[in-house]
Amino acid sequence: MSRWPEQPNDIIIKWIKDRSPSLVVADFGCGDARLAKSVKNKVFSFDLVSNDPSTPLDSSSIDVAVFCLSLMGTNFPNYLQEANRVLKPNGWLLIAEVKSRLDPNTGGADPNKFVKAICELGFTSTSKEKQKSKDIEWPELKPCLYKRR
């Protein structure tokens, strides 16, 4: 990541800083909770191992849900459904993912199918609308493999 031209977390931090500090944020897959340390907003940080344990969130209780390189589990649709549950109507879902996981030419998922599946949850490019529960055909994302360097 240190060689990437832009760090996804920096882009998300800037996006949040450019908006109201009153927005409540949930950082799903927070790692070292850098987002929470970088903005004035109230941030709930969740990770498999988190240095900032938070309590479960109520339905429709947050304004922004963030997944920054954190949709690694095979059950990633459950994570997105949980974000949908806790987001307020017209809330923002921000996803930053490794390009290769959404590149069918390298074995990744079709990005159009991924976006379509998210839209079937009720998301659009500008707002979130509540939808009735239905079966969604989620694409299989290429697993994250880490190499020791």
From TrEMBL:
Species name: Sesamum radiatum
InterPro entries: RRP8, SAM-dependent_MTases_sf
Pfam families per record: Methyltransf_8
Subcellular localization, as worded in the UniProt entry: Nucleus, Nucleolus
Predominant localisation class: nucleus
Its EC number(s): 2.1.1.-
Official protein name in the record: Ribosomal RNA-processing protein 8
GO molecular function: methyltransferase activity
Stated family: Belongs to the methyltransferase superfamily. RRP8 family.
Keywords linked to the UniProt accession: Methyltransferase, Nucleus, rRNA processing, S-adenosyl-L-methionine, Transferase
Family matches, as SUPFAM superfamilies: S-adenosyl-L-methionine-dependent methyltransferases (SSF53335)
